[in-house]
Amino acid sequence: MTQNSLPVLQIAIPLIAAPLCVVIRDRKIVLACTIAVCWATFAMSVALLHRVLSQGVVTYELGGWPAPWGIEYRVDALNAFVMVFVAAIGALVITYAPSSLEREIARSRHYLFYVMYLLCLTGLLGICITGDLFNLFVFLEISSLSSYALISLGQSRRALMAAFQYLVMGTIGATFILIGIGLLYQMTGSLNMQDVAGRLDPQRGTRTVLVAFAFMSVGISLKMALFPLHAWLPNAYTYAPSVVTAFIAATATKVSVYILLRMVFSVFQPTFAFDSLPLDTGLMILALTGIFAASAAAVFQTNIKRMLAFSSVAQIGYMVLGISIASEAGLTAGIVHMFNHAFIKGGMFMAMGCLALRLGAVELSDLRGAARRMPWTMFAWSLGGLGLIGVPVTAGFVSKWLLLTAAFEAGKLPVAAMLLVSSLFAVVYVWRVVEVAYFQEPLQDQKDVQEAPLSMLIPTYVVIGLTLLFGVWSSLSTGLARQAALALLGAAS
User: Fold this and answer.
1) Orientation of helix 413-439 relative to helix 304-325, angle to 10°
2) Burial class (CB within 10 angstroms; exposed 0-12, middle 13-18, buried 19+) of 438
3) C-alpha–C-alpha distance, residues 188 and 200, integer Å
4) CB neighbour class for 67 (10 Å; exposed up to 12, middle 13-18, buried from 19)
5) Would 49 be classed as within a structural domain?
6) What is the mean pLDDT of residues 458-486?
7) Would 404 be classed as within a structural domain?
8) CA-CA distance, 293 to 434, in Å (whole number)?
9) Using CA atoms, how far apart are residues 125 and 127, in angstroms rounded to an integer?
């Protein structure tokens, strides 16, 4: 395997492995294959990031056709950084998965889960790595269709309705994105992102480009569940199998935020989005509204997975808020929070999977005294909660500190004040769970409940441990995010 082939192998290996799993079907062989592929994919993403940092942008021309005529895979600091944490979550969650799947999905359907998981990972990584607009749409559909199938595997019949609602909303979003791509092709005659950006220069003020930008902005906002286009997300996270929720919550919306960054800064350029159009103001209003509205909704939830789902909508608001500041500091904060939130929320949903395995439910009332029966699981969840609040020494603190700094530097003092106030909501909904789990008597029928198996606890603690590691050793994640922000701003200049 040569380093020059890494970009295409990153996509080809999981894409080829998925249909092989359909042919093999044997549960144990398919599991071993999926775990091996996911860890290999992670290793390749780390190698790609190292190569980008040491040598600069990495490109791969599919079929030997040069861009813009052929499809180009293009890896810079931004998408290399995103691919590393997407692949890391993919590898850790699939390592954690087997025990949870035994309870939540019938054995006869396990191989289907692994097939869809590999396809979803392929789609998410493909979105990040491609430099072609139509190829981006294809990978978006691969990840979306497999996500719908994964969510529908949930035990409750409501999982089917949640998957259908996600399908309807996701299809609308994908259609809007495709219309935008078609209009851009009409104006430029190209689908290569760099080529489109160059050809748009004299045409950015035309009505067709404006309409294309509007369609793509709305479509991407639907995909990343930006308030108020988030209606599909709470049910999808609540009724999906625990493994699926942990994977999708940590990766899918972050990749959609990446698409927004790529479109605004690399294709349309911020002079068009923020100077000719008031996108920064619009995004800031929606982000702040979403932070408060979704956080308030989370406070009143009794299902913990649903509570964390509304929390995710609020956290997407933090990412978008960083983008709306449109400065190096703001972009760095938004990108860092994509990274940090992936591990915080992924770890918390993995802890919820441990609770679901032993308690059979994730309602607040079912968690009474859970910390006495499952101390390690609840401790992991509580550490993740501290990250959501933004307590020092956690990755969440780093994100919020960078956002505050960016707001102060931009002279947006009211925004900084609102950021501080919004953290109080997280304190409330995290404390509700901690209070019930630690300070109430256990239910009588849960006296024999045992701690989650090590096969689930170890990956959970690795993910939660990373939130502490990057809270203390923040220079690595912040440095990579700053390089990604500078690459975006450099492409925009």
Assistant:
1) 160
2) middle
3) 7
4) buried
5) no
6) 88
7) yes
8) 22
9) 5
Number of domains, the chain:
1
DSSP-derived secondary structure for 39-86 = HHHHHHHHHHHHHHHHH--EEEEGGGPPTTTS-EEEE-HHHHHHHHHH
pLDDT tens readout for residues 262-300: 998 888 888 887 877 888 888 889 999 999 999 899 888
For the CA atoms of the chain, what is the radius of gyration? 21
Report how far residue 476's alpha carbon sits from residue 457's, in angstroms, rounded to the nearest whole number. 26
- Please list the residues that pair with 192 across neighbouring strands: 132
* Contact criterion met (CB below 8 Å) for 96 and 115: no
pLDDT at 1 over 50: no
Is residue 428 included in any domain, yes or no? yes
Q: Is residue 85 part of a domain?
A: no
pLDDT, tens only, 96-107 = 988 888 888 888
DSSP letter for 390, please: T
CB 413 within 8 A of CB 407: yes
Measured over all CA atoms, what is the biggest interatomic distance in the chain, rounded to whole angstroms? 72
Tokens 């190698």 locate to 47
Average pLDDT over residues 446-461: 82
Q: Which span out of 275-279, 412-416, 431-435 was modeled with the highest average pLDDT?
A: 431-435
| Cis check: omega of the bond before 14, within 30 degrees of 0 | no
Q: What is the DSSP string of 175-207?
A: HHHHHHHHHHHHHHS--BHHHHHHHHGGGTTSH
Question: Mind giving me the DSSP string for 358-384?
Answer: HHS--BGGGGTTHHHHSHHHHHHHHHH
Domain of residue 428, residue span: 278-493
| End-to-end alpha carbon distance in the chain | 36
Q: Dihedral, CA atoms, 135, 127, 237, 313, nearest 10 degrees?
A: -110
- Residues 380-394 have a mean pLDDT of 88
What is the rounded distance in angstroms from the CA atom of residue 395 to the CA atom of residue 29? 37
Encoding tokens for residue 39?
A: 């860890």
* 3-state secondary structure at position 231: coil
Q: Which amino acid is at 134?
A: F
Q: By CB neighbour count within 10 A (0-12 exposed, 13-18 middle, 19+ buried), where does 327 fall?
A: middle
Q: Are 429 and 298 in contact (CB under 8 A)?
A: yes
pLDDT of 211 > 80? The answer is yes
CA dihedral 148, 150, 153, 158 (to 10 degrees): -40
Q: What is the pLDDT of residue 121?
A: 93
Note the Cα 71 to chain centre separation in Å. Answer: 25
